What we know:
The chain has helices at 3-15, 18-30, 33-55, 60-76, 80-86, 90-102, 105-113, 125-139. By secondary structure, the chain is mainly alpha-helical.
Amino acid sequence: MTEQEFWQIIELSWQDSPYLYKKRTKVLETNDEDLLTELSEEVYETITENCKNRLQRLDRKALTAFILLSEEKLYKIDREEIHKFTDGSDDGFLYCRCFILGMGEQYFNMIDKEPAKATIDLEAEAFGFAGYEVFEEKFGEEFERNTVCCIESCSNKEAWSS
C-alpha cells in the first residue's frame, strides 16, 4: 500500500458520509474551532465505522500496511510543539493525534506544518485503533502494535525536550 492509497481510504471514508464531508471541507478552509468540536465525535463514531468498513475489504498484506502507515503518522506528530496546543495526558494526546489522523491528509499536513492550528481536547481514539480491531476481527489474532513506530505519547524522543 502506498501513502496515497492510505490517505485515499481515509478520504473515501469521509465521502461515504456526504454531510460530514461537506462540514469537513468547510473546516479545512476555516479551521473553525466550533465545527472541529462537532466533527470530533463524528470522527470517533461515523468516520471510524466508514473506515473500518473499507478496511474489511483489504487482504492481510494491505491491512498490515495500513496499520503500519497509521503508526508512522501518529509517531510523526508525537511532538511537544503539537502537544502544546492540544494538551492532554499521555493517552489524551494520543487520542488527539488519532483525531488529527482521522481528519485526513490535508488537515494532518496543516497541523504537522503549523502546530498552532491544532485545537485543544479534540479526540478520536477509536479511529487510531480501527485497523487493529479489523485485523483481529478478520484474522482472529491481535496485531503486534508498535512494530515499526511506537504510537504512545512521548515515544518520538527527538521531538520532546525532556
